[in-house]
Amino acid sequence: MAKILIAGGGPAGLAVGILALKNGLEAEIYEKNAGPGGLCAQWNRRGYALSAGPHWLPAAGPDGALRPLLLSLDALDPDFAPAPPPVALTLRQSGVSLKLYRNLTRLEQELTAVSPQDGPEILSLVNLLDRAGRLPFPMEKPPDLMMAWQRARLQIQASAVGRLLPYYRISALEYSRNFHHPAIRALLLHAGPPGGSAAASILALGRLLSPTGCYLPQGGGALIRRLVQTFQSLGGLLRTGCGVERALISGDRVRGLLLRNGKTALGDYTALACDPWISFDRLLGRRHMGPAFGDWYSSPESRPVSSHFSCFFGLKGDPSPLCETPMGFECRPLFPSAEAPDWLWLQAGKQGAPAGCQLLRCSLSLEESQCDLWLTLAQNKERYGVEKHRFAMEIQRRMTEQFPQLEGRLRLLNSLTPASYHRITGAYKGSFLGFQAGPGSRPETSAGQAAGLENCFLASQWLHPPGGLSAAFTAAQFAVQRICRLERLRFHL
Question: CA–CA distance from 315 to each of 52, 87, 129, 197 (Å)?
């Protein structure tokens, strides 16, 4: 029985392990942190369960393309299929409260009521969002394993991408100028990652509004617990607190992994479910990077990365929810040099909170240059701690300006910077997702195999920009499918 060695115990690594075991292979996972989960890990602070992971999954609803894979992984309870709330997001800007309805007809009415003069552009935007929400996830198999007719079908299904190509060539800022109303401009400018293309914002909104979306209980913590339980129940070996130092390469094959404790793990295949920068800069060497990653890492304008500064607050004694849906709101700039207002994103609810309390997560999206600032600051531990606390207090002040009823009632539980994400996951520049589509870029993915190594496969969100859990799980499935082909095994979910 062939054995797969998996570097990284986040969602992608756990998914590789489960699918490998289900298809008659052995699997061992090596995770550097004390617990699995990566960005989706859960931790406790003062009675609250915190998670930086996702609070919803695209295409995971009853008719979603991702749902069969998630059920195979046992990542979701099969009975958990709540209808996504009718309003996906609320936006507050300049005294206007804008509700983003999942019903696109209702959304068009809402936007037109706010800005009648933008009627034609709003109709065009709604049509684009409809197309973006219907774009298929390439879940069946990777293109290199497809028959000719399957590739042709995929091209037909993805023909809607062609309608979005012009929007890959311009920035979200440029596209937002087509609209008169500042709230709609703000929506398009801040829906996607900072520095992203207009297409990135349209795709993010389209997937957020899709009726096949699925909200997760307790953020990403419950999902990781289910993945770990499934992996171990199938006989998988999970080693935490056991990082990988480097891959042991002989010719065109990886023979095993040298662990940080000095021990060696030997196997027939290797799946790298960690940040590709770690894979190519330390584990394998950059000669195995391949052209796609080489281009992406050297093109920050067309392939930017972004991250968050996130704060977790506890709120005691308020049984009513602070906001019914996730919310974005305008606030005074947090960076002194900034000319435009900042946008904070708020999620509030009882999940993860003790009885009679609420858990609030408030995040600021950061562009690549701001990520660099935090990574540089983290080199001075004392100064970093001071600035991190000061920034969190500034976010708290902006929240109380928006919600005066919170004055004196918030308790800071924890805060995360790009340096935190880098420490936890090793993510390139502390990125929260993978590469983004910047202006001038085209939709493309990376090959899921290390260049020049016939038995070393990649499995992470970075293979399929803009990343996220759907990309991580897809990459995991593709990696196991490629191994099954080499082993002459018929892959099944």
Answer: 18, 24, 35, 37
